[in-house]
Amino acid sequence: MATIYQVAELAGVSLSTVSRVINGRKTVNPELREKVEQAMRKLNYRPNSVARSLASSRSDSVGLLISELDTPFFGEMMQAVEATLRAANKHVIITVGHNNPEQELDGLEFLISRNCDALIMHVEALSDDQLRQINQDRIPIALVNRVVEGLESHCITLDNEMGGYLATRHLIDLGHTQIACIAGPGNKQDAVKRLEGHKRALKEVGLPFKASLVYEGDYTEVEGVNGFKWLSRKTANFTALVCANDWMASGAISAAREAGLSLPEDLSIIGFDNVLFAHHLFPKLTTIKNPIYQMGEMAASAVLQRVYRQKVVVQNTFIPELVERDSAIPWVQK
């Protein structure tokens, strides 16, 4: 099998000239281009990804380090990243960090060892200092759903505080004053911001924030069940429940129905993310749209812009939207 070095030797040109021809650069002299193309035809040479990497000092591959594989949320993100990069003739290598510092570092080292040109990361366990050091000293990164001071232009994120505010404000506007909350993990930036938005909406209308009406979950469906049961033991007075993601809202709906409640007449519930199954629940889930597909596209575009010097527009911050369905209705005193 012919090599790029043999092409250069037969054509009587430098390796860098062959590189420019392989990568479609327009700066090559037409006469030299013809010599390279003739040599490629004579040797039946077909440039592969390794040859392109040797010629351009790029692997044309991007690493994707995400938290989990088993949720629609990350499925949408992976699909968006892969589609955007494939359209630019780049490839994606995926690994998972499971929100664990050792596993995130292991995944990082794995992707770097595969000669990725850049990394797109949805990580929670790595510290801000570690992320700044990785971007400065090792490999360019783009971050999804996280803001790191000093790397703001590398971050693609949702205004989670606004999302939390919109969810609770919607319930308030429906007449609810006793609003419980199943929050996300206190060590996750997005969960903290969503809870801050919940508090802001309560404060805005003079409603007190009560710790007895907040349960900290872990974004899983079973924690939606546990959260509803815990809140019910603490107080039976809440008429509405805001959940930090749709999985926990789904669990809460199941637990409420098992407890004999009629939904949404006895309890209004609102989720967050607007994942695929949200409109299949009964009642159909009112939720906050988290445009993770578009954020995945933007993370890939940020890499194309920063690493591959492509002229693309990058949007760093997305604004959440309320998606009204059937699970939240006006409160009627009984």
Automatic annotation (TrEMBL):
Q: Which PROSITE patterns match?
A: HTH_CROC1, HTH_LACI_2
One Pfam assignment: LacI
User: Where is the organism placed in the taxonomic lineage, from the top?
Assistant: Bacteria, Pseudomonadati, Pseudomonadota, Gammaproteobacteria, Alteromonadales
Protein name according to UniProt:
LacI family DNA-binding transcriptional regulator
According to its UniProt entry, this protein's organism is Alteromonas aestuariivivens
> Cross-referenced CDD domains, in alphabetical order?
HTH_LacI, PBP1_GalS-like
- Domain HTH lacI-type: start-end pairs: 2-56
Any one GO molecular function term: DNA-binding transcription factor activity
InterPro entries in the record: Cro/C1-type_HTH (IPR001387), HTH_LacI (IPR000843), LacI/GalR-like_sensor (IPR046335), Lambda_DNA-bd_dom_sf (IPR010982), Peripla_BP_I (IPR028082)
